[in-house]
Amino acid sequence: MRPSVNLDFACFDIETSNLQADFSIILTACIKPYGQETTVFRADSYPNWANDRANDFQITRDIAEEIRKHAVIITHYGVYFDIPFLRAKMMKHNLEPLPQMFAVDTWQIARKNFKMSSRRLQNMSNFFDLGEKEAVEGGLWMEAAYNGSKEAVDRIVSHNIRDVEILEKLACISFPYLRSIPKL
């Protein structure tokens, strides 16, 4: 009998044109199984990008298909943003809901265990020496979403990949503080 999911941990992060699914599109997403290469999804690699950027059905479907392969999804503030955003897009596009999965959110671990001025990924990365993280530049996201700039999407993808790499490191050092793994 073949297993339907890998019993692994996969880091997940999306980059969108806005913070609300009904006013936004998915620009990029990265899924990085622990210790493996990152799978990158970029909206500009889909045929409808040139003429119909508002339709993010294909990228949403592909992200959901990849997420389904993993049992435990690691995010940073993803229980409050990445996953609900993806779920809203999936429902909009009549895609089947995600299966039973588990969630590790490093932001939640930090909130309960680390007294810090900010629990943003960039601040935690700097404080714990996990590597440099690029700052978010609003103009870059606008160039990608509104003008379809390949160069802007390239930079966002680079940012997105770096986020899941740092997230993987943060998850490793946060894991001893995890008391349970809730369902997603």
Task: Characterize the structure shown.
The chain has 184 residues and is of the alpha/beta class. It has six helices and five strands. The protein has a five-stranded mixed beta sheet with strand order 3-2-1-4-5, with helices on both faces. The longest helix has 25 residues. The protein is globular and about 50 Å long. The mean pLDDT is 94.
Helix/strand layout:
Layout: E1 6-16, E2 26-33, E3 39-42, H1 57-67, E4 70-75, H2 82-92, E5 102-105, H3 106-113, H4 121-127, H5 138-147, H6 150-174
Parallel strand pairs: 1-4, 4-5
Antiparallel strand pairs: 1-2, 2-3
Helix pairs in contact: 5-6
Supply the key terms.
single chain; 184 residues; alpha/beta; five-stranded mixed sheet; 18% strand; globular
Provide a quick synopsis of the model:
It is built from 6 helices and 5 strands, in the order βββαβαβαααα. It is an alpha/beta fold.
Overall pLDDT confidence: 94
- Low-pLDDT windows of residues: none
- Radius of gyration, Cα only, in angstroms? 16 Å
Distance between the termini: 25 Å
Structural class: alpha/beta
Order of helices and strands: EEEHEHEHHHH
- Structural shape: globular
Oligomer: single chain
Query: How is the biggest beta sheet arranged?
Result: 5 strands, mixed
How much helical structure, as a percent, in the residues? 25-40%
DSSP strand content:
15-25%
